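Much of the work behind modern protein science is quiet bookkeeping, done one molecule at a time. The protein below has been through that process, and both of its lines are reproduced in full.


***
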Amino acid sequence: MLLSGGLDSSTTLALAAEQGYTLYAISFRYGQRHARELAAARQLAARYGARDHKIVDIDLRPFGGSALTADEIAVPHDRSADEMGEGIPVTYVPGRNLIFLSLATAYAEVIDADDIFLGVNVLDSSGYPDCRPEFLEAFARTANLATKAGTQDGRTLHFRAPLIQMTKAQIVQEGTRLGVPWELTWSCYEGGERACGQCDSCQLRLKGFAEAGLTDPLPYETA
């Protein structure tokens, strides 16, 4: 389970637990602006009884190119829905999901896991190209061609993204049904004591709760 500590990955974690999977979690310290999401991931992995939780260090800051890994690029605030629906935002981290999935594939090979879960979502993804079904399907083909598991061992690696075609409201409803402890999750791109309420991630999360008719228990600076 690729576990970021956010709304989508926590719901996916709870769904995999409900389906009876033995849980192994993997998270990444990749040079992002803050460690709040990693703290959330640790708590969620413990809450759901993950057999192991790897936090892998990779540093994407030397490449920059993203508001999440380069201090000179500001996280955009208060963008409209139309603005969020156009193009790829500066919070996109070049190659991030490609790198994360490659490392998760290596981990899965070692522990004999054939199912890799991730919480990507295409409908409310702020235009990230590595959250699309086309990317995941292509990566799955490559992973099965490039691994001992998929060639010599006769295994098939399955990349499962059960939320990929769901809206944020539907994800909030599903997570609520599953009993996800929303107060332990973190989605904000900023790393303050309270979520900013203004970045794209906060706005999409708040919109999801509002459309689901629920209240997000996280404290916000602005909501």
Summary: The radius of gyration is 17 Å. The chain has a mean pLDDT of 95.
